[in-house]
Each structure stands twice: as C-alpha cells, then as structure tokens.
Amino acid sequence: MRIFSYLSRSAFLLLAASIVFAPAAARGLGPGGDVYFGYSRSGANNFIANTPAENGWDAAGELHFIPFLGAEVDVAHYGLGASNNDARTTTVLVGPRVTVGLAGIHLFAHGLVGAAHSYSVGGPLSYSKTPLAGDVGGGADFRLLPFFAWRVVGDYITTTDSPSNANHYRFGTGLVFRF
Fold it and tell me: What's the CATH code of the domain at 80?
C-alpha cells in the first residue's frame, strides 16, 4: 500500500507541474508536453479473476525532455457503473514515452510500470490488494485546434498476480491539451 501512496503523489505532482509549466511552454520558455483525460475500458478478468470488462476513466500527463522523448504518468480507475459487489481498480503507472508527429497527427509508444490497487466492499467476500503492474502500448493524437487533440490509445496491461484467463488489454479515447 505504501508504494501505491508514493505513486499517487508522484502522479499528482507530475500533472500539477504540467499545468504550471503550460504557459511557459506555450511561449517556448519551458518543456513541452500534454495532459489527457478520457474514457477507458479494461479487459475481462484483467485485474481480478471472474470479473467482467470494466468501464472507467484515464488521465495522463507527459513532459518532453527532448523533442521525441518524455516522461509519462498515467492514472486510471475502473469499475464505474458497477454494482457494489464488483471490483474497483485504480492504476498508477509511470515511464517513458516516445512520440513522433507529422501533419497534425502524433503517434506514440510507451512502457509504464507501477501498481494496480483493486478492492471490493460488497458481496460475500471483501478484499483489497495492490500488485505491481506493467503496461506497453501506444496510440495516436489527432489535432483539433492548436492546443487540443483527440487521442485513441490501446495497451497491453498486466499485474504480477493477473489470472491466467485475463484479457490483458485496455483501450481509451479522450481529449488532449498540448503545451
């Protein structure tokens, strides 16, 4: 649980830093990057055995170190709209992202590591666990306006205790603010 708390604080600090640096980056005075928020769906049995695919949200922030390489923080929560008996999972992941862009489309790939905290408070059994998690994937950002884009992303995500019948995928889409 301690690592999850540390990663949550790290994710919050990176997202806060991206908001603070956005005006300077827009003027070319600081690092560039983006902030994303959107819908996400995980595969069945992905985090907990015998659970259906779950709906949720995903938020990510990236700061560029050099034009095509940056550091990303991704926070997602699954289990929205589910009954109290169903599992809820929150993931906090960090890692590098490689981005290339041309003609208003940015393609990216990332490799992230962190933790996935799953819990259930209803039903016959209550539980809480926080295994390590890993994510490899990528996506595309399609420019809408100078500072806004629409993102489509797909990932292969797994945890150290994923069930053997897990569908290790998640996909999402949402709005990106670039700076």
Answer: 2.40.160.20
Q: Are 171 and 155 in contact (CB under 8 A)?
A: yes
Enclosing domain of residue 169? 2-178
Q: What is the pLDDT of residues 33-86, one digit of tens each?
A: 999 999 999 998 888 887 788 899 999 999 998 889 999 999 999 987 666 667
How much is the pTM? 0.80
With a CB cutoff of 8 Å and minimum separation 6, the contacts of 26 are 147, 179
CA 102 to chain CA mean position, Å: 24
Q: Are 105 and 142 in contact (CB under 8 A)?
A: yes
Tally of domains in the chain: 1
Task: Give 159's contacts (C-beta < 8 A, 6+ positions apart).
Answer: 47, 116, 131, 132, 133, 134
